Predict the 3D structure of the following.
Amino acid sequence: MSEFGPEWDALELRLRELAEFRRIAALLAWDQHTTMPRRGSDARARAIATIRVVQHERQTDPALGDLLQRIDTGRLDRPRAAMLRIARRDHDRAIRLPADLIRRLAFTASRGEAAWELARPARDFGILQPFLTEMVALKREQADLMGHDGERYDALLDVFEPGLRAAYVAPLFELLAADLRRLLDAIAAAAPLPGILNGRLHPAPGQWRFTMRVLADLGFDLDAGRQDRSAHPFSTTIALRDVRVTTRVDEADPFSAVFSIIHEAGHGMYDQGFDPAFEDTPLAEAPSLGAHESQSRLWENIVGRSLPFWEHYAPVMGELVGGSLVGAGAQDVFRHVNRVTPSLIRVEADEVTYNLHVLVRFELERALMREELSVAELPEAWNDAYMRRLGVRVPHDGDGVLQDVHWSEGLFGYFPTYALGNLYSAMLWRRISTDLPDIGADVGAGRFEPLLGWLRDHVHTPGYLYNTGELMLRATGSELTHEPFMDYLWEKFGPLYGVSGARA
Amino acid sequence: MSEFGPEWDALELRLRELAEFRRIAALLAWDQHTTMPRRGSDARARAIATIRVVQHERQTDPALGDLLQRIDTGRLDRPRAAMLRIARRDHDRAIRLPADLIRRLAFTASRGEAAWELARPARDFGILQPFLTEMVALKREQADLMGHDGERYDALLDVFEPGLRAAYVAPLFELLAADLRRLLDAIAAAAPLPGILNGRLHPAPGQWRFTMRVLADLGFDLDAGRQDRSAHPFSTTIALRDVRVTTRVDEADPFSAVFSIIHEAGHGMYDQGFDPAFEDTPLAEAPSLGAHESQSRLWENIVGRSLPFWEHYAPVMGELVGGSLVGAGAQDVFRHVNRVTPSLIRVEADEVTYNLHVLVRFELERALMREELSVAELPEAWNDAYMRRLGVRVPHDGDGVLQDVHWSEGLFGYFPTYALGNLYSAMLWRRISTDLPDIGADVGAGRFEPLLGWLRDHVHTPGYLYNTGELMLRATGSELTHEPFMDYLWEKFGPLYGVSGARA
């Protein structure tokens, strides 16, 4: 028996088992996206649904609820008090959802994803529409069962960003949009930056070697993780010492693989960095997806699109990847990877326009949940929003509403976390620049240990010991704000484009 | 509701869920052996144990036992009556085993396998000994809990070869050993066959292309399966349409990959051939491992080591694999792949000596279960048995008792199924040669559909509709016997070595 009492020990066993189910589901999904044979998809949908149902049964077990009530909180230390808080919340949320809904959600997600994989290349929203209609109905049902104060979307958002409300974040996003618009207008009036891709192909093996090199350099532990190819890059955690990242390789654009792998490495290093003492407990998680995304964005954009980074890597990439990269200097690459253009595709967007893509999705999914918008109306609403927010015309649904898999998989309330990640990453970077005055020189020399060490101490190791707001306040001294992000953008893009100004 | 009644429908749902858990465990194991990062093994052991425990809970659920009793058997058709019989047996067996034993077995198996992976290259039995000692104790406990008539080994054998008893099979094996010894002595007195490997290396990519070609030619559906590399070749079934085979590639010996993949394809095509109407039910299984092995052995040895096979493939292999194969004729390869030499390693053994390797393991594991032998005594007993059965001296444990992973994983009672597979494969081949008089010409032309079609009809599609004895009786007209196998060996190796004789 531990010092925390027999009831705690029984609870911890249950919490560890619940973590196992999440891990197993993660492996089923990883395999589905990287290695599973084509004809295996129906059976895989059933397997994932089965695991979700078992997980839900365990999560809603009345004996667990009983334990959660009986624990003597006075005996717990701080980490275990945090675990208990998380476990109670998860149990309370789960008991509101019947097993049948869980099964239908998992099954519709797998089927919806398969439909999306056909619909996107066919540019045919009609293929996806029945699955998405079913999914939206299920998510509305789920949100109502989980409970909310009139804003159904909040229940879904809370799953990914605990405590955040749509009514709080929407005005912040509009302030951000206005500031971004000002910067974007200034850039639009300036001369465009030159690109360096000259139409030559960059064979996949060289790109692969370069991304493996970058992964290892940044600090991603390849004995406790791996990299694979997939259609859509992602990272997933099978265990603390089994964290997997994927990338896509585009022979016409070698930066696609590079930035996707730096991004995913940011996620992966976070999950490799939790305190091993809390492996398989609720503490070995990020407190929110926004916190998680702060890491991927910090590495991808603030580090990976910086001049020092390319001072180190431009010659390495030229040597390993060849093609357009041969002889390209750091400044050439720096300008190339920071070209700003309002575009159609979120995952290809630059740092200035990226959040506007997110805002489109946020307003549309919120409207779907409010029943102000139907799935049938979604493509047109999407196209209107892109014209309004980004000033671009969507030529077909493949480059429009079908571009992301998220909604097909039931991920509503997820997109805002991308924008929050950007804001948090700039908040963190402001503090890092003070704490690590040599960070520019370090990155320029390919030394990432000081940065990774800082992030380990201030973000990774605590895991879910604090909620996101408290974690960020401890790490940065600040509440959520878009100001450091706008300052960062102006400081970088002002000189690049020869424009001046500042946030309002 | 189906025509079989609401209780049947409820039962079938439960049986399908049980099948899902087996599939999920299969994926966890496949990933562990092919892709998992090195440091992921501890967590994987816990994940597999967790799935095994859930599977066991469901399998032993009193509500399932109640359903199994209440089913109105008069309403069932033949397939469903078979399902019920299997389901009752599995439930009855499972309720004898406490969940804690299941967890310890799964955990010790994962840990034992990891220890084996260190022990074999280190040639150090001491690394494995504590894990194997624990495993043997657990298997004795398991056997006693499952029940037996004094021969503890029977309880374990029954899991893999339902209905077979050690006291029945041991005398058959000794008859087989005596007959094999007679053939082996005749061959030992004859001139050895020439080999064709000339010391050149055969790069892995060419070997890979050749094995993929063979896989597709034989009829393995690569849209419903895949091939990967692993240290130890195996096949596993994630779903009816997701069947995975692995091979090892040895650049010094290209036949290693070829025969391992023909063998695994034999297993894989069996599992792709079950009746889709019974997907995820107990009928979508082979009735025993001996039946399963009859397929891998038939393809690997009777087809893959035949002269017609190499009339078709010698030029293809020469072109794709190169090296020693360039210009090798069918007769050259035929003789090369049929050289007979008593050796140390089971998986490299020829058809004449292979079963003697199995007999060593059978007698040792039976002695372990009878407590006539301890794990500490195992290496010496192994070496003695190899001298006695095969006349070879074992130089170190890496090429001796440590060569197979099976015991480390808890697979006791498993090895005899390899020998049974050989006997069944020859029984089947005798009948196939009558039913398909052109089979030699077909194989010589690379036409495998007639053979696969015959196996689909007579072995694969029925799945577990019959037990192994009945399945083989229907397919071959014969009870289990070693005579067709010995006739096959004499007919093949007599002319090859210029020796004559026959079984006694």
User: Anything to note?
Assistant: The mean pLDDT of chain B is 96. The beta strands of chain B are 225-229, 235-239, 242-247. Residues 6-34 of chain B form the longest helix (29 residues).
